[in-house]
Structure formats: structure tokens, C-alpha cells
Amino acid sequence: MRLLIAEDELWLRKRLVSTIDWSSYGISKVYEAEDGGEALEIALKEKPDIVITDIRMPELSGIDLMKKLNENSIFSKMIVVSGYDDFEYAQGALRMGAINYLLKPVDEEELLDSVKRCVEELKKEKNKETVFDKQSAASEMLMEHIYEDLIFETSEKRTEELLQKLSRKEIGFPFQSAAVVNMQVREHTFFVNDKVKSDMWSVYQWLRRNLQEDCYECQYLYMRGSQIVLLLFGDDPEAKFMERVENWVQLILEALQKELNISLFMAAGDVTDDFSGIHRSYEMAQKKIKEKRAEEKRILALRNQETEQELNTRFDDVYGEYDFKLLIKEIRNGDSEKAQTELQAILQSSSRRLQSADMMKLQLFYMNFINRIAGACLPECEAYADELAMQCMTVMRELIYIGSDTIVTEMWDCLRKFVEKLVEVYQENNGKRKHWMIDQVLQYVEENYNTALSTRDIAGRFFMNTSYFSKLFHEQMGCTFSNYLINVRVEKAKMMLTQTNMKLYDIAEAVGYTNVQYFSTIFKEKEGLTPSAFRQMRSAVKDEYTGK
């Protein structure tokens, strides 16, 4: 058997080539390539049985290399290695048929296990004398991409051209009926974007494992953003096929709720018997989900309205309408006088609306008040905001526990000191971030920290040279972009560890790490504790403060 190692990092490539006794795994020849272009050239000539490839390489990426090999009817067993822990890379690699997706630093034992799997599969194919029709496999992969374009219709012009080509080549619709099923996770109270993405990835992986090949005559599974889409084919007439799909949808919903504890919106579009109707079926499925969301919100609004009539003071009323933007802006500007003015305006407004609130509502109001401000100041003053917030909350709890006639005045004084200390932090750093671009970069990171971000990606997004951007960011922020991104992710993880019961691997995925072990290592380097130990410590502190 022949092995090709495509890796642009010289030290890693030489380590894999030279330090492992490949012959003991049944591999007689090892080739190496320093970029994607060279790897393709070698693969076209030598047709390796197994390929270990990096995702990011000059000339040709690992995903593109896999596509090129498939286009040339070379179906090597693929093992993908990457330093970019992103759902899209893993999804793309798995969709292209990769045996495994490994994160750097590469664990040698895990790599060799993947190689063993490849060797075993190759031996089975040879022993059984399986005749693998490469042209048919390539055609099936091509149809999968064609259906993807038809479903999502990313370009009307491209879709029209595609339909014309299908017509010219006289490719008939493969089955009597087809329908698109759309799945979207219901919104969550906390960390909506992170939790939705984590849940959808779990559902996608579950479906990959559990969709039975004989469930439908043909089926295709796609993940796009915060939705999962299934294209199902069958030989039943329209009415019977729709009944079959709707029954299947109900079974899947129940199974996901039972096994993953994930509640979905799930709907099937209209049945079609031609290529042009696939996108219409997808749009109808989306429309049904939109209607389900609207109906659920309507019912929830009615319930809230009924509850409101029963309560003298609702927490949402006294908290939800406040605008903290001006206060946060003045804190960041380091303007103490204006910050205190904005704080006073909010507190005076709250005083009028909290007159009939009990101590529990007061505590909830002020705790959320502190969290809102501290969260807006992270991670730019990460060394202080979290600690100051905990100190302020501790004082608040003590005031509520002791109780006094002047408790509101004492709480206000505590909040003023909290804001004053935050302002001092920003005053110390005042003038360091003068470049127009940095705030935009920080905002972009805040909104996209759970995706694959690199210095090169950010520099390209803001039309800057990578080296210049790296230097500018370090000068303005006092750290590298990579360290800043890690700090943001760790802070988000700390919030989830403290305020939710999410599992560790869900939190890791929610903040942008698909490898929970790597996430734990990064977290410990930053916090001095593992994520589990951090959660236990915060839980113990919380119990101590609440007297539990």
C-alpha cells in the first residue's frame, strides 16, 4: 500500500515521514508533498491508497485536493489534519469522504488508529474482490452537489443554467416523488447563537449515524448555518409519499427529544416530481417553520399577558426596557462624570418602577444590571470586570441579607463605585486604540468568535496586509490577535460554565472548539483551572453566598 503525506509545515511532515515505521502497518511506499499542488501532482501519478493532508496549504487546500482527486477518479482513503477547529471544515471533510478529522497538535496514537482503519478497509475491499465503480461514485457525488444547488438556489442564474443542462442531457427525475424537510432548533433563553449552533451540529451527527439507508429510496443530508435540510426521494404517489414523510418527521422529532433532549421545528415542503420543484419544496418547508414560530410566539405572548395580569410588578417590565448603550459608551470613553450621569438616570427610572417589588425582584434586577455592564466591558478589561462584578454582587447579597431602611441608597452607592472602577480601567488604557479599524475588528470577533478566525482571515476581511494588521493589532491591543481571540472564547466559556448546565463538549463547540481536550488545555492555561474545576469553584462560591 502507498501513503501520501501532504503538509506544508516541514517539521511535522518530516516527523510523520521519518519517525513512524510505516512498513509495520502494511505500507510499502511513503510520498511527501509540501503543498497542495505538489500533492495533486504526486497523487495523479502514483495513485496512493491513503492520503494524510492538512486543510490549509499553499496553492491547493486539503478540501480542494480531495475534490480534485475525486474528479480524477482517485478515491484514496483520506485523513484530514488541521489547526482550524471549525464546524465547516469538519463538515466539508466528512462530506468529501474523509475517514477522520484530526486537530493539531496531532496525537500520534489517534493518527495511527485512523491509518489502521484505512488499511483494514482497503484489505476488506481487496479480500472480498469488491468491484468499485469509480465513475458511478463520482456521478453520485456530483448529483449530491447538484441537489444542494437546486435546494438553496444560491444564484438564480446558476440554477437556471443547471436546469437547462439537466434538460439537454436528458437526465430524468430519479424517482416518482421528492420532498425537502427543514429542521431548525427552537430559540434558547441564554447564549442563543452558541447553543443553536452546538445543538444543530449534534442533530446533524445523530442523523448521519441513524438515518437508515432503506428508510427512503434515496436521501441527501445538508447542514447550512442554523438549519439542517434533508432531500428525500421515493416511488410512492404524491399523497402517500407526503403522508409517509409526515409520519417519519414525527418519529424523528420524538427520537431527538428523547435521545438528545433537543426540541426542533421540523417541516416538510410540497412533494415534487421534477428538478425545478426542489427549491419550491424547500421554500415551503421554511414557510411552515416560520408559521410554527409565529404561532408559538403568539401563544407565549398570550400566556405572558395572563401572567402579567396576576402580578403587581413583573421583572421584565422593570428591567427589559432600559437602554444601557449610553452608559457603556461613556465607561469605554473613560468619562467618569458622564458615566455617573447616565447611571443616575437609569437608577432613578428603576426607582419609580421597583416601588412595589419585593427583595427577590430587587436582587434579580441589580444582579442582571451588573452582569449587563460587566459583559459589555469584557474582554477588553478582562482582568478587572469579572472580579469587580463578583465583588459588587457579594456586597449586594450582604445588603439584602442584613436589610435596612436605606438599602436602596446603599445599593446605588455600590453600583456607582462599580462603574467608577470600570471607568478607571478604561482611563488607564485611553488613547491606545486610536485606529478606526480596531473597534470594527473587536465587534466582528464578538459576533463571530465561535467560527474559524485567523489573523489572515481578519486582515483580508478588512483589506489589510496580514503582517501590517498583526503589528497594528498588537500595538493597539497589547497582545496578538490569536491571544485576544482565545481570551474572548475563554470569557464566553466562563459565562456558560457559571450560568448554564451545558455539558463541557457542548460549551467547547459553542465557543469554537471541536476538540474538547484542546479546549480544556487552552482554558487551563488561561485560568489555572480546568473547566470542570472552574465550574465547581464558582458553584461553591455561589452556594456560600446564597447560604445553600
Automatic annotation (TrEMBL):
Keywords: Cytoplasm, DNA-binding, Phosphoprotein, Transcription, Transcription regulation, Two-component regulatory system
UniProt superkingdom: Bacteria
Transmembrane regions listed in the UniProt entry: none
Residues with 4-aspartylphosphate modification: D54
SUPFAM superfamilies assigned to the protein according to its UniProt record, in alphabetical order: CheY-like, Homeodomain-like
Role of this protein: May play the central regulatory role in sporulation. It may be an element of the effector pathway responsible for the activation of sporulation genes in response to nutritional stress. Spo0A may act in concert with spo0H (a sigma factor) to control the expression of some genes that are critical to the sporulation process.
Localization per record: Cytoplasm
Protein's name according to its UniProt entry: Stage 0 sporulation protein A homolog
InterPro entries tied to this protein: CdaR_GGDEF, CheY-like_superfamily, Homeodomain-like_sf, HptR, HTH_AraC, HTH_AraC-typ_CS, Sig_transdc_resp-reg_receiver, Tscrpt_reg_AraC-type_HTH
Domain HTH araC/xylS-type: 439-537
Residue ranges constituting the Response regulatory domain according to the UniProt record: 2-119
Main location: cytoplasm
